[in-house]
Amino acid sequence: MTNWLLVYEQKRGFVMVLQNQMVLQNRKTLQNQMALQQNNLSLFQQDKTREWDKTRIPLDALKGIAILGIVLYHAFPNYVPGGFLGVPLFFVLSGYLMFTSTLQKWRNGSFHICAYYQNRIQKIMFPCFVMVMCVCAYMTIRNSPQMIGIRQQVASIFLGYNNWWQIAQNASYFEKHTASSPFTHLWYLSVEMQFYLIWPLLFWGYCKLSIRNAKRNKQRRGITCWLFGVLALLSVYKMLHKYIPGEDPSRVYYGTDTMAFNIFLGILLGVMRQKYSFCRVTFSTFWRRICVVLSTCTILILFHFVYGTDSLLYQGGMFVISVWYMLLINFIENHKKAVTNSFCANCLAVVGKYSFYLYLWHYPILVLL
What we know:
Elements: H1 2-55, H2 57-75, H3 86-108, H4 113-142, H5 150-158, H6 162-168, H7 187-211, H8 217-242, H9 250-254, H10 256-275, H11 285-305, H12 317-334, H13 336-340, H14 343-353, H15 355-368
């Protein structure tokens, strides 16, 4: 009896060992399958990222047009006097992209204010810091006269109020560039930084009015459009009120209050594309080509014939141009595939991809060299 029990216990132990080994094997197989699925998912996400990068080509092409206009204006102001109108195009694009990217992250549950500000600092402040330090080192070695008062100017750059500092210094954007500071162009970044600072609050207001109350969404969707539309019109009114014909227009060109309508128009476009289907209307190939030709001619005319001191520009002209920019962005967004297949658009997109760095560095190089 004892021998039989001993044999039984041994067999039972052997069976349990086999069962444990099978369980371990199953676990390893399951882990391998999960790892394989994760690898496949990561490859799929990489493919989607590449596909998403392709969808950025149309807007990157617009950035390329804007930065080329700005660089040519600073390099050849007599031949491309209207190239500075690339700045309002940048503002409208910035407002549109700021809204669409934030909305996408909010819907995915990945929007966090701290991460948002950290991302802005990494993308803007670090490259700007490198450029400013390199330029200051060069001016110190060359004993450049532009080093006078450089501390206050650098402080205004990194604290985000350089545009107001230049207004207080009565600095003119439209004087000869050889006599200006190598950091004159950074007023644009200050306006952007000020908007980045208040954007989470504005987006929270948008969510309150439009998204969270689905039952009354049809009634409230018009309110959000009116909200950003009214803010844009208030900024236009401020420009009309502040501009004095015959005087240097740098105050209204530098001011956050007088240039904010460009960003609000970009945000308004993003809101309207979410709410109204007529914003997504597409055209046939014939009319699409007509629109492309007319848009190209319009940009060339603006860059060649408009001057920064024209009174009409600050009496409603810039607002009309920015509204046209808004319509142009909407047209391009509705015809992404056609624009992506264009060789010229791809070439411009390469320039637009690095437009921020080109904007940072081109002006100091033109002024100091």
